[in-house]
Write a structure and sequence with these properties.
- The complex is a heterodimer of chains A (about 200) and B (about 80).
- In chain A, about 70% of the residues lie in helices and about 0% in strands.
- Chain A is mainly alpha-helical and about 200 residues long.
- Chain A folds into two domains: about 5-90, Rna Polymerase Sigma Factor, Chain: A (Orthogonal Bundle); about 105-195, Winged helix-like DNA-binding domain superfamily/Winged helix DNA-binding domain (Arc Repressor Mutant, subunit A).
- The longest helix of chain A is centred in the N-terminal third of the chain and has 32 residues, at about 5-35.
- Chain B is mainly α and about 80 residues long.
- In chain B, helix 1 runs parallel beside helix 3 (about 40-55).
- The radius of gyration of chain B is 24 Å and the shape is elongated.
- In chain B, about 20% of the residues are buried.
- Classes of the chains: A mainly alpha (about 200), B mainly alpha (about 80).
- The interface between A and B is large, with 52 and 39 residues.
């Protein structure tokens, strides 16, 4: 075989590799964009304003598109994107917040139900509509008031419907920490709802 | 309350029960108590309603226009590349 033939073949292979890469990248980008609304919904409740959420999602996608090769096809892309997002959010400096250790002890799990029962009567707890006593704005504010360590876990599991294991991976914390923050975060949330919407 | 002193235990199991994260033994304890105790039963039902309410009310859809901005962040298209 002539030397120029081998060189041609090499060039052809390189061209094919580039084309393959580009196709994979496009597939990745499309799959990622399909998840944008779900990523935004989680982001929106992790930060204070819509503008911040939009910016955070844009930064997330900019980074994701740059480092698409580090995503393993077939694994959970939504969790992968949220991992980038929570890292970026942490980098933005949320250092002024109190750490969980300094939080007041939350009330027990029945606290909100007990408070509602005191106002509306025991029977009311049976009715699904009783939760509407808690306004939509009240729920959103109570979530926003959660210390961020708790909020991230509550938002990922209860709004994003991620498993404990996925949440642990996204936040890079042990699964036991996910569970304790989730349980405490939900109690604090219910306490806030009781205090802010039932007075 | 049922008065058998198990309400406190049942309350402890509430979150794990709804998350389906209890051991079989704990599920048996919780369900055994719930069958006897209307007080706890109401509170479990309330918690389930509450979770659904929180999930649906706290959802805010992506603003119009963000998708376009995200699409602009994509790399050069693969169009025109040979198969």
């Amino acid at each position: 075989m002539s030397e120029s033939g081998a060189a041609d073949r090499e060039e052809e292979d390189a061209g094919r590799r580039i084309a393959n890469d580009a196709r994979e990248r496009v597939r990745f980008e499309e799959e990622a964009l399909d998840l944008a609304d779900q990523v935004y919904r989680v982001a929106r409740r992790m930060v204070g304003t819509r503008e911040e959420a939009e910016e955070l999602v844009q930064d997330t996608y900019a980074r994701a598109f740059r480092s698409w090769k580090s995503f393993t096809p077939g694994t959970n892309m939504r969790a992968w994107l949220l991992r980038i997002l929570t890292n970026l959010n942490t980098d933005r400096g949320r250092k002024i917040q109190r750490t969980p250790d300094q939080q007041p002890l939350e009330e027990s799990d029945y606290y909100l139900a007990n408070r509602l029962a005191a106002v509306e009567g025991e029977q009311a707890l049976e009715q699904e509509q009783v939760v509407e006593r808690l306004s939509q704005g009240g729920v959103v504010n109570a979530l926003a008031d959660l210390p961020h360590d708790f909020r991230d876990v509550v938002v990922l599991v209860d709004l994003g419907e991620f498993s404990y294991a996925d949440a642990a991976q996204i936040l890079d914390i042990p699964i036991g920490t996910v569970m304790s923050r989730l349980h405490r975060g939900r109690r604090i949330l219910k306490q806030t709802l009781a205090e802010e919407t039932l007075t | 309350m049922s008065g058998d002193g198990d309400c406190e235990k049942c309350e402890e199991l509430l979150q794990g029960y709804l998350d389906r994260d209890l051991t079989q033994e704990e599920v048996t304890i919780a369900e055994g108590h719930l069958n006897r105790c209307e007080y706890c039963r109401r509170r479990y039902r309330f918690e389930a309603h509450l979770r659904r309410y929180i999930r649906t009310t706290a959802i805010e859809r992506m603003p119009a226009g963000l998708m376009t901005k995200l699409a602009e962040l994509r790399g050069p298209t693969a169009e025109g590349l040979s198969e």
